[in-house]
Amino acid sequence: MFIYLMIGYITLYLVVWSHEVGHAFFYYKYGCKSNPFNVTIPLYLAFSTPQPIDLEKRLI
């Protein structure tokens, strides 16, 4: 039973991670982020973000 919980959690973590990388890709595309794979996802999965980004970057 424990192995199924671990597999489920790891799968969910990977889905959330890939979702945040999708957001970070567009920050990278427009020059606000240097590495799209550097995202913040806590182990409890809530409040995951594509941070850190350069909030001071201005697009013309």
UniProtKB/TrEMBL annotation:
Keywords attached to this entry: Membrane, Transmembrane, Transmembrane helix
Segments traversing the membrane: 6-28
Name assigned to this protein: Peptidase M50 domain-containing protein
Source organism of the structure: marine sediment metagenome
